[in-house]
């Protein structure tokens, strides 16, 4: 059992169609920004994860595939730590990381997309 957070952005399909008109260099620039922000989000989640052995922290990941950033943890008990149980208080290491990083992530993605559009307009 693992736990993942996935963000669905309204209007993403329209954005994808528009991004297809951009050059591969521009797509790469936006993709690289998404990867960079994913790494920051992963590192933040690792810093928020409770540590006893460090295993949970070591299983936290961030991947980007087809404009989707996935952040999660593959430790078998990750969901129990994140959401809690009737016996365990939730520790929300992923949700807290997302809340903390979201303003920066949105800002950086806007900047990368705006720059890509400016370069296409030349």
Key features?
122 residues, three-stranded antiparallel sheet, alpha+beta
- Classify the helix fraction into a percent range: 55-70%
| Rg value | 17 Å
Report the major sheet.
3 strands, antiparallel
Question: How does the helix and strand content classify structurally?
Answer: alpha+beta
The main sheet orders its strands as 1-3-2
Give the SSE string. Answer: EHHHEEHH
Count of domain modules = 1
Average the pLDDT over all residues and give the rounded result.
85
Number of strands: 3
The span between the termini is 48 Å
Low-confidence stretches: none
Bulk shape? elongated
Fraction in beta strands: 5-15%
Please report the number of helical segments: 5
Written overview of the protein:
The structure is a single chain. This protein has 122 residues and is of the alpha+beta class. It has one domain. The chain has helices at residues 12-19, 24-48, 55-58, 78-83, 93-121; strands spanning 3-6, 60-65, 68-73. Strands 1-3-2 form a three-stranded antiparallel sheet. Strand 2 and strand 3 (68-73) form a beta hairpin. Helix 2 packs antiparallel against helix 5 (93-121). It is elongated, with a radius of gyration of 17 Å.
Give the structure's gist in a few sentences.
With 122 residues, the chain is an alpha+beta fold.
Indicate the topology.
Elements (H helix, E strand, L loop, with lengths): L2 E4 L5 H8 L4 H25 L6 H4 L1 E6 L2 E6 L4 H6 L9 H29 L1
């Amino acid at each position: 059992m693992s736990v993942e957070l996935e963000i669905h952005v309204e209007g993403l399909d329209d954005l994808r169609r528009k991004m297809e008109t951009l050059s591969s260099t521009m797509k790469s620039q936006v993709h690289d920004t998404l990867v960079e922000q994913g790494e920051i989000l992963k590192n933040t989640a690792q810093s928020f994860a409770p540590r006893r052995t460090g295993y949970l922290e070591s299983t936290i990941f961030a991947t980007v595939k087809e404009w989707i950033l996935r952040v999660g943890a593959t430790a078998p008990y990750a969901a129990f730590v994140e959401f809690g149980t009737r016996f365990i208080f939730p520790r929300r290491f992923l949700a807290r990381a997302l809340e903390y990083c979201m303003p920066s992530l949105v800002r950086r993605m806007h900047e990368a997309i705006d720059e890509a559009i400016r370069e296409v307009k030349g």
